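Limitations
The structure tokens in this dataset are predictions for the assembled complex, not deposited experimental models. Users should treat interface geometry with appropriate caution, especially where small molecules or nucleic acid strands are included. An illustrative entry is reproduced here so readers can see what is and is not provided.
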Amino acid sequence: MQSPIESSISELADLFRLLGDTTRLRIVLACLDTPIAVNEIASTLDLSSSLVSHHLRLLRAARIVKADRHGKQVFYAAADQHISGVLADMLEHIAEPHTDAD
Amino acid sequence: MQSPIESSISELADLFRLLGDTTRLRIVLACLDTPIAVNEIASTLDLSSSLVSHHLRLLRAARIVKADRHGKQVFYAAADQHISGVLADMLEHIAEPHTDAD
DNA sequence: ATAACATGTGAATATGTGTTCATTTGTTGG
DNA sequence: CCAACAAATGAACACATATTCACATGTTAT
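Predicted assembly:
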């Protein structure tokens, strides 16, 4: 991997920071496979739609998810393959057996 | 991707949250390619070794980096391929051209 | 043992941020 | 146009956490 320039680093960190909150992460996971409306996310995860909307705004700004309006409802979905790729890699990292030796 | 169980989610979020700070991210990037000592990280990134040590402790606890003592110095390196894989994916995500249309 | 160096740690503070509540904007159907 | 619903937003608060400073621990050489 190339050493990323300084400007990319804050952008990188932004993306990770957004995924680093359990509520936001659950929201992202909820719309990974198929587009899903805001209030459906809210009811599924048992959150207020206000809170979901707040988080989706941040996720959308970072292009982690993309929005698609259908009538009154707005459907959200993962922006691209890299997002699911990152999540898959991290899950492997967790699954990996680890000795207690540091 | 399988839907990750609830316990994995907080573990996942922890990992992302740790990478979501620019200082910690720079530290991780600094020891991605080759093991590097604490004070070398500190001087390279122009940080106090105390701060670097604090962050390394968190990164080590999450098994993002691993420690290796050689004499007085402790060398740190990325724990496994998944970490670099995640970073590579995220960099691709950033590099991807994006329209301003939301 | 002691000095010199490298790393680790605890407490305190300043800053960032997730959540709630109230309100507003946008959209469809009567 | 108006009522009903979905989504978005702003302000305020509570809480988490990154950083600094002072000090402790661990390691090597003399």
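Some entries come with short summary sentences. For this one: The interface with chain A takes residues 1, 3-4, 8-22, 25-26, 29, 32-33, 60, 63, 66-67, 79-80, 82-94, 96, 98, 102 of chain B (CB under 8 Å).
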